[in-house]
Amino acid sequence: MKVVIAGLGTVGRGLLKALSKKKSELWRAYEFSPKVVAAVKSDGAFLDENGLDPASVVSSLDGRGYEEHSAWVSGYTALEAIRDLDFDVLVEATPTNVESGEPGLSHILTALEREKDIVTSNKGPLVIAFEKLMEAARERGRILRYEATVGGAMPVFSLVEKCLRGNKITAIKGILNGTTNYILTRMTYERVPFDIALKEAQELGYAEANPSFDIEGIDAACKLVILANAIMGIRAKLSDVEIVGITRITPEAIELAREDGYLIKHVAQIEEGVLEVSLRLVDEKSPLAVGGTLNVVSVSTDLAGEFTVIGRGAGEETVSAVLNDLIDIWLERRRALAR
Amino acid sequence: MKVVIAGLGTVGRGLLKALSKKKSELWRAYEFSPKVVAAVKSDGAFLDENGLDPASVVSSLDGRGYEEHSAWVSGYTALEAIRDLDFDVLVEATPTNVESGEPGLSHILTALEREKDIVTSNKGPLVIAFEKLMEAARERGRILRYEATVGGAMPVFSLVEKCLRGNKITAIKGILNGTTNYILTRMTYERVPFDIALKEAQELGYAEANPSFDIEGIDAACKLVILANAIMGIRAKLSDVEIVGITRITPEAIELAREDGYLIKHVAQIEEGVLEVSLRLVDEKSPLAVGGTLNVVSVSTDLAGEFTVIGRGAGEETVSAVLNDLIDIWLERRRALAR
Q1: For residue B319, is pLDDT > 80?
Q2: Are residues A301 and A225 in the same domain?
Q3: How far apart are CA B225 and CA B240, in angstroms?
Q4: Which of A29, A159, A320 sits opposite B155 (nearest CB)?
């Protein structure tokens, strides 16, 4: 199976690392031995039609001398790779843009036109054009997987699809952004004011220099849109989500809630077709009462009752979701792609 | 696909209900239309080689007039059904016996000898003879699934197998018994003494008249043995588990822990090959800090970090796990079993 990786941030680089480190295990467990024929950054690409050595790409990236790598082609773009190379699966891991979905959206559509399967960790294209992408994949008989887009390492979509067969999902509730959960946790347990907690989150690398995407609830709302479309068949857009951020919360309100056995959490939920991201009281005994940067997703089902998953919502752990998607495609296509 | 259901307690009866209620959905989603050719109780069986009407069996069981049902054969046993009938999958849902594994063990072994696939919700056979059963299934090329045996409705095994591909599981920690979690939760938040909390649990139907299987930690240890064998490849037996029950805990100890931000929980864990069920301090912000009758399983993985699932550990929700296993077998075998 030949793979193009577009984007060499945490996820793209982490995937190369995992493929290198787990080479023999992946072969033993699944006879899975992908060839990465292109690994593309914003300023160029590592190219090898016989398959790159992932370890050497990672170490040259870590060492900052990547332009010296023998496979490096300066200025070569992901779109060129997707248009011109011989490959089977695109891993789309470029940065999220929820206004245009680009460049991920064009990457995915172009790859689908060329009848390639897709694994994306990039939310942008799905938030902008979920239905269009699924339709394009269906038309071409391609697999489009996106486990990493919501909840990072937590396998929410494959869990519902493969482990809760026969269940109807009636509602979803979750904490979908680790930065805001970190801030609220600090405010709750250490009585730190909002501004200080935010500054800490930035210093620890959880929050961006411009944190509004997180603290205004946009990131959580994007993930909710994907959950609504993928799991509940609701054709929602970002503009359909009622969003309240966490900026106006005070330590006093948190303290008052706590005295009654409640926490204030930034909860994203889908209930009776309504999508909302807002501050809510959560019982301290509830599965949603999880602290730190953790993410949580609770699904209400008709057979299994309420079922909750908790895990790392961001960072290098997200590679787990991308790798699981990639192996899934391999297992589905192995007869055709055994090369 | 022809199914024999052995055992018509909560799970067996719940499965019949779900098959009846979800008939058209299961067909639409998976073209799955199983025929239940036998549904066996301890005193007889409902038999129909063309497939029973599940709804009529359930309503005659609920109405206590089941001996009048036209398909009822008094005295007919599960072993007879497994030996003599034409079927494809055995659903083994008889009561758990962790001393002999019987009658479930003989049911499963006999069915495997006849080259049938198996779904079991009965822990007993797996606790007694995990390796032997897996080996027997492998030899005959059969599928043996057991999602319902640990964590009730929580899909722990399929989750690890299908949603965390490529991950190595390095440790497991969980709350595997809802009764003890209920008792500890009542003691923690309502300061109810142990005896009273136990009595409440019995009155609510969570605990048996003889509650020692739960409160001494045996039930949790059995589940831990299955997790160790199935997920971590540790060939552990029940006698390998260090077990401490919850009977000696006092409200004072719970109160002291709580003042420092900790809860006392009955935790089952596998770490560095050691299996333990014991009382532990759990941070109130931790995913294990879940109250009521809920079950929790946290797996530590090399790629995805720590990942936790929380759900209904017992009761009718368990049917979800059995149904998922059954559909999985159908999807795997559909070409052969399309009848």
Answers
A1: yes
A2: yes
A3: 8
A4: A159
pTM assigned to the model: 0.94
- Cβ-Cβ contacts under 8 Å, A13 against chain B: none
From the list A159, A303, A312, the residue facing B323 with the nearest CB is A303
| Residues in chain B within 8 Å Cβ distance of A166 | 18, 22, 25-26, 29, 320, 323-324, 327
Same structural domain for residues A181 and A250?
yes
Model pLDDT for residues A178-187, shown as the tens digit of each residue: 999 999 999 9
- Cα dihedral sign for B28, A272, A232, B34? negative
Neighbours of B258 (CB within 10 A): 14
The answer on A76 and A19 residing in a single domain is yes
User: How many domains does the structure of chain B reveal?
Assistant: 2
How confident is the model at residue B219, as a pLDDT? 95
Q: In terms of domains, do A140 and A209 share one?
A: no
Q: Are B168 and B306 in the same domain? A: yes
Residues of A in contact with B167 (CB under 8 A): 320, 324
Question: Which pLDDT tens digit goes with each residue over A122-140?
Answer: 999 999 999 999 999 999 9
Range of the domain at B280: 161-313
- Counting Cα atoms < 13 Å in the Cβ hemisphere of A250 gives 3
CB contact under 8 A, B317 and A328: no
Q: Are residues B144 and B197 in the same domain?
A: no
- Cis status of the peptide bond prior to A103, with omega within 30 of 0: yes
Mutation target to probe the B interface, by most B beta carbons within 10 A, among A22, A26, A32, A163 is A163
C-alpha span between A291 and A34 (Å, rounded): 37
Average pLDDT rounded to a whole number, residues A247-253: 91
Q: Provide the annotated active-site residues of B.
A: 223
pLDDT band at B70 (very low <50, low <70, confident <90, very high): very high
A168/A305 same-domain check: yes
Considering the domain architecture, whether residues B111 and B195 belong to the same structural domain is answered as no
